[in-house]
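Q: I have two molecules that I believe assemble together. Could you output structure tokens for the complex as a whole instead of separate predictions?
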Amino acid sequence: MSQTRQSPARTLAAHAVLILWVLIALFPVFVTVVNSFKSKKAIFTAPLALPGPDTFDLVGYRTVAQQGDFLAYFQNSLVVTCLSLFLVLLFGAMAAFALSEYRFRGNTLMGLYLALGIMIPIRLGTVAILQMMVATGLVNTLTALVLVYTAQGLPLAVFILSEFMRSVSDDLKNAGRIDGLSEYRIFFRLVLPLVRPAMATVAVFTMIPIWNDLWFPLILAPSESAKTITLGSQVFLGQFVSNWNAVLAALSLAILPVLVLYLIFSRQLIRGITAGAVK
Amino acid sequence: MGQLSLSGVTKNFGPVDVIKGVDLQVADGEFCVFVGPSGCGKSTLLRMIAGLEDVSGGSVTLDGRDITHLPPARREIAMVFQSYALYPHLTVRDNMGLALKQAGHPKAEIRAATDRAAALLSLDALLDRRPAKLSGGQRQRVAIGRAIVRRPKLFLFDEPLSNLDAALRVQTRIEIAKLHRDLGATMVYVTHDQVEAMTLADKIVVLRGGRVEQIGAPMQLYNDPDNTFVAGFIGSPQMNFLNSGAMGLSSHSAGVRPEQLQVTDGPAAIGGTVSHVERLGGETLVYVHTQDHGLLTARLFGEHDRAVGSAVGLGFDPARLFHFDKDGRRLR
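A: Yes, here they are, computed for all two components at once.
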């Protein structure tokens, strides 16, 4: 890639487009973070200005710290996201392995069935899901959210991972079988490490919608003890009065954990996306 | 010990019969090679012996023990794969020792066994490396070492030389032959390369379309093929098939090996024009276009100058012809 010589004008143009896109993508984040450090008056008078000596104010963060149990909300969000992520990756990889490795009747049909979820939004089933949760007594628990998010993430995970698993050498798996490894060992020790980039890709695509979701926490787990951070931030948005300082501060804080998780996965992710292209 | 016997072994994928009834005896210490064109079922048959593929019908026994439905790990076999199939996360030593470790052998014993195998294949210096840091030839030696460590009754090789370059292939071929002599173990080897088959085998099994065409020692197949397929497959360059009718013979076609054809300037049994010449130093291949028999190959030893387009005669000893009927069966 770096070997090919391109004219400076073309390079410049490409970079201009990329930079423009970065600016557009980061603008809402930038406005949110900047304004979370300003006084309420400053937010409204000059929303795009950077916080100066007289407009700098940590009132939003103070409110967040005092009002509501934000540490608990954070914890809820983290627990839900990490657990769902773990279950999606585990079950997704296992299903993908079975679909790509074993010949059985209805294999293709099963694969299609599992991939169907990609095309049908899970929110269409909200009413039925709520009824189920009420019937099982899971309303207002984190379990409800973990279950729903696992179901939501699985189709894409199975779809992407089974494609990658097909590319793992059959000889390697067979060598393991001859050496007496169990199917579980072959899966966990031989195959999973080889599809790690694909796992990271799936992890990122699964994690972000879960962390950001407002719909299911609002419907399935609105109680104080089960609130997630996105739902928790909503307490500052009233019908008549909104505490913008607090909302922006809460949202700024909510970016952090997901950013950390993304950084962990991103190295693998880039390898995953380019794996087919450069090899 | 390691006496393998297949009786009436079949394999079908749905309605497609891939292996159509194979009977085979491999004696203890014998080097048996499955050879055939791609898609002939030779790899499938090997994988059935290994237990990686279910057997649809018939039985596989090793030393009198029926292993038809045993899982691969309990068959006392070891396999070397074309793509090496080393475990990427383990060092060479751990790669070689894994099977024993899985079987629960004590550490000291595993260490001794891997050291012994490493010495045999001169892998000592590489024991702590990972497969990614090895060259192709070294990887294949590790794969062979991994097979040796298990002290199996039967070694299975699935086209082990196909991923190596030409020079390394010859060298590894010799190593495998030497290994077979040193270990005296029974080996079953799959290849599509008839040179590998001829040089390594005690016994060659020629397969086509899931059926055994002929079983025999290399020279037996070369000197006494049962049909046109075996006659054409064994020997390089390929046997020439002459149109018997044009020569007033009663058979349908007659085969003659390229080395049996003499190229002459004067009139001979067959006349034609030189269409191409390949000079290999030690031998010269002359391709002659003929009216009645199409393109024939003559293999001459030493260097010969034949101009393309010149008229030549091809002579042969009629006693060295192989006669075949119209279904390709040998007429003896």
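A: One point stands out. Chain A has two domains: 1-57, 68-278.
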